[in-house]
Specification:
This is Methylglyoxal synthase. The chain is of the alpha/beta class and 143 residues long. 53% of the residues lie in helices and 13% in strands. The chain has a single domain, classed as Rossmann fold. The relative contact order is 0.17.
Length: 143
């Protein structure tokens, strides 16, 4: 499974601690992360991470592109609901793409834990079904 990790500045340490707590789960999957969040996870959690640009500099859009291509299976995006962000349109676009592609998104630590527990149990077989259906539908062979 491919998991994207993103955190606003006020939530980065919380996400890193979460990843450390569930490093056994994250270590069995491919992890993508935006800029500083990815650097902190590599440094503190000692996990391999495919690092993208910082969120405000296009990282959110890079994750969005991976979601649009159905290459991300889950997103954990710890957002600061009290901060006004200049790149809010990028965040909104990413969340919309996750809805379009049926990619689960956790936006706080409680939903992140539910998502990771689901990953741990192997409850993501439905992602393969959705992926196969979208490929089938695009091929024009639907009846």
């Amino acid at each position: 499974m491919n998991i994207a990790l993103i955190a606003h500045d006020a939530k980065k340490e919380e996400l890193v601690n979460f990843v450390i707590a569930y490093s056994g789960v994250f270590g069995r999957h491919t992890v993508f992360a935006t800029g500083a969040t990815g650097a902190m996870i590599v440094e503190e959690a000692k996990l391999k991470v495919s690092r993208l640009k910082p969120g405000p500099l296009g990282g959110d859009q890079q994750i969005g592109a991976l979601v649009a291509q159905n290459e991300i299976d889950a997103v954990i995006f710890l957002r600061d609901p009290l901060a006004a962000l200049a790149h809010e349109p990028d965040v909104t676009a990413l969340l919309r793409l996750c809805d379009v592609q049926c990619v689960p998104v956790a936006s706080n630590i409680a939903t992140a834990e539910l998502l990771v527990k689901s990953l741990e149990r192997g409850d993501f077989a439905w992602r393969e079904v959705i992926h196969k259906y979208k490929v089938y539908k695009r091929s024009g062979t639907e009846g």
